[in-house]
Amino acid sequence: MLLKEPIEIGKIRIANRLVMPPMHTGKSPDGKVTPEQIAYYVRRSGGGAVGLMITEFAAVSRQGRATPVQVSMAEDSVIEGHRALVEAVHQEGSRVICQINHAGSAAQEKVTGMKAVAPSAVLSPRAGKEDELPRPLSVDEIRKIEEDFVAAAQRVKAAGYDGVEIHGAHGYLYNQFFSPLLNRRRDAYGCDSVENRARIFTETIRLMRESLGTEFLIAVRFGGCDYTPGGSTLEDCVSGARLLAEAGTDLLDISGGICGPNLKDVTRPGTFWEAGRAVKQAVDIPVIVTGGVTTADQAEAILRAEEADLVGVGRALLKDPDWAKKAMNASAKR
Ligand SMILES: Cc1cc2nc3c(=O)[nH]c(=O)nc-3n(C[C@H](O)[C@H](O)[C@H](O)COP(=O)(O)O)c2cc1C
C-alpha cells in the first residue's frame, strides 16, 4: 500500500503518508499547552501510525488571536509546554509540525482587545452580525506581521518541532491577502496580480528560511482557491503554489474555501483533490490533500491517482483515536 510508504521531505523522513491535519482543540485558556492536549496528541499518534501530525493553529501575536482558548506561539514563555508536547509525540514515533496563524479580520476585538486588521476594509466571511469593518494594514504593519511569523517560527524550532506550517487558508489573514474577494489593495501586496496577492507569503517564507536554515521544514496550508464566485480560482491556486515553492516551501498542504474547508458542492473524499493534482503537476515538492477521508482505501485511492503525496484525516481521527492504528494494520494485511 502506498499509504505505508515512507517519504523524505526536505531533510526529514516521515514513516508513512498519513497526516493528522491541524484541528483547534480549544484547550488553552492561557495560551499554554496543557497536559490534556499532550495526551490528546499522543493518543491520536497511534504509536506512530500517523506519520506526520500538524498541531492546531497557534497565534503569532495577541492581535492575531482567533479564539480565547487558542494555543499561543507569541511569547517565549510558551516554548516549554510545546517542548513537552513534541517530546511526547516523538516518543510515539510520529513527526510533528506546528501550524501558526494570524486571524486578520476574523480576530475579534473582545478576544484581542484591539480592532481587527486586514488587507482592506472588507468584512470577514466569518464575521458575526456585531462585527465591524477591519482596519486596513499599512506596509510597515505588514512587515511587522511577517516578523511576528518569523519570531513564532523560531519558537517552534526552539521547542523541537520538525517544522512549521503557515496557515494560509480558511479565510484567515494570509488567505485574506490571496483572495480577490477580500484584498482590494492596489500596492505591492494588492489584488493586481497573483504575485502581489502572494507577496506576504513569499516574503515570510524567504525570511523564515534565512533565519531557520535548511534542516527545518517550512510548510504552507494554502487556500489557493476560494470556491466562491469572484474569488481565487484553480488557476490562481496553481500559480500561487509555484510562487510558494520558488520561495522555499518544503511542503504544500492544499486546502481552500474562504469560509472553511467543508465545501457543500464537493462530496468526494479528498475534498481538494482537483487542486492537489494540478499543484502536484506544477511543483516538485510534496503535496497534502485533506477532507472527508474516512477509510484507508479512500486515502490509498488519492495517492494512487497522484492527487497528493500525503493524505490528511481529521474528523475520522477525532472520532476514533485508534483510526490510524487500524488503518495501518488493515493495510499491512494486504
Ligand atoms: C474541530 C476542528 C478544528 C479545526 N481547526 C483547524 C485549524 O486549527 N487549522 C486548520 O488549518 N484547519 C482546521 N480545521 C480543518 C481541518 O484541518 C480539516 O481540513 C477539515 O476538518 C477537513 O478534513 P476532515 O474531513 O478529514 O476532517 C479544523 C477542523 C475541525 C473539525
Notes on the structure:
With 334 residues, the protein is an alpha/beta fold. 36% of the residues lie in helices and 16% in strands. It is built from twelve helices and twelve strands. Strands 3-4-5-8-9-10-11-12 form an eight-stranded parallel barrel, surrounded by seven helices. Helix 8 (234-247) crosses helix 9 (273-282). Flavin mononucleotide is lined by residues 21-24, 56-57, 99, 167, 169-170, 221, 255, 261, 290-293, 312-315.
Descriptors:
alpha/beta, binds flavin mononucleotide, 334 residues, 12 helices, two-stranded antiparallel ribbon, TIM Barrel, 8-stranded parallel barrel
Question: Secondary-structure blueprint of this entry?
Answer:
Layout: E1 7-9, E2 12-14, E3 18-20, H1 35-45, E4 52-59, H2 79-92, E5 95-101, H3 109-112, E6 117-118, E7 135-136, H4 139-158, E8 163-168, H5 173-178, H6 194-197, H7 199-212, E9 217-223, H8 234-247, E10 251-255, H9 273-282, E11 287-290, H10 296-304, E12 310-312, H11 315-319, H12 323-332
Parallel strand pairs: 3-4, 3-12, 4-5, 5-8, 6-7, 8-9, 9-10, 10-11, 11-12
Antiparallel strand pairs: 1-2
The structure holds flavin mononucleotide (FMN).
Structure in a nutshell:
By secondary structure, this protein is α/β, with parallel strands linked by helices. About 35% of the residues lie in helices and about 15% in strands.
User: Could you give the distance between the termini?
Assistant: 7 Å
Rounded radius of gyration (Å): 18 Å
The ligands found in this model are: flavin mononucleotide
Under the CATH scheme, which class?
A: Alpha Beta
Given helix and strand content, the structural type is alpha/beta
Tell me what portion of residues adopts beta-strand conformation.
Answer: 15-25%
Cross-sheet strand order for the largest sheet:
3-4-5-8-9-10-11-12
Report the CATH topology name: TIM Barrel
Number of domains: 1
Q: How many individual β-strands?
A: 12
Tell me the CATH architecture: Alpha-Beta Barrel
Number of helices: 12
Shape: globular
H/E series, N to C? EEEHEHEHEEHEHHHEHEHEHEHH
- Report the biggest beta sheet as strand number plus sense, adding barrel if it closes: 8 strands, parallel, barrel
